Amino acid sequence: MCEIVLVGRSNVGKSTLFRALTGERVPIGRRPGVTFRPYSVRIGNLTYVDMPGYGFMKYRSWRDQERVKDLIVRYLEDHADRIITAVQVTDAASFLEIAERWESRGEVPVEIEMWEFLCDLKLNPILAANKIDRIANREQVLDWIAERLGMEPPWRRWEDRIAPISAKRGEIEPLRNLIKSRIEMASSSP
């Protein structure tokens, strides 16, 4: 069984994207922490998995937030051999502001830490830069995001890893194309 896993910080649009990719209605909400357990749906030979969000969740205790983070890490490690790709969903409109806030406290931003973890696990990750419709200077913001994730700008050099999307508007074709290419690569490898 092959899996495509959606991960990301709380309230970046993972569940909305999951719905757009699968047609499956999952609980979504305006506040962080609505998805608290992995939710999966099988489509043909693939299983799509919507992971709970990590990071700040206003109505959850610190202990609950840590449990969610541990659950995500354990799930990815335990299922790495069957994950075709991990799609890290980010809110492109707030990515830089949040990264700078973490860095100003001397901490590694959680989204950068997750990206590095997905790469270390060799999960062939895709960055779904969601809410791109809210950004006026898209090219510049995507360049900055790519650079923060260790990819030399311009971001277009990384179109095989970065998909600018708007899940809420259903504008996810760049991501669909990258997922399709990951599936084709997995099918052709021994």
Automatic annotation (TrEMBL):
<dbReference type="InterPro" id="IPR027417">
    <property type="entry name" value="P-loop_NTPase"/>
</dbReference>
<feature type="domain" description="EngB-type G">
    <location>
        <begin position="1"/>
        <end position="185"/>
    </location>
</feature>
<keyword id="KW-0479">Metal-binding</keyword>
<keyword id="KW-0342">GTP-binding</keyword>
<dbReference type="InterPro" id="IPR030393">
    <property type="entry name" value="G_ENGB_dom"/>
</dbReference>
<keyword id="KW-0460">Magnesium</keyword>
<dbReference type="Pfam" id="PF01926">
    <property type="entry name" value="MMR_HSR1"/>
</dbReference>
<dbReference type="InterPro" id="IPR006073">
    <property type="entry name" value="GTP-bd"/>
</dbReference>
<dbReference type="GO" id="GO:0005525">
    <property type="term" value="F:GTP binding"/>
</dbReference>
<keyword id="KW-0547">Nucleotide-binding</keyword>
<protein>
    <submittedName>
        <fullName>GTP-binding protein, HSR1-related protein</fullName>
    </submittedName>
</protein>
<dbReference type="GO" id="GO:0046872">
    <property type="term" value="F:metal ion binding"/>
</dbReference>
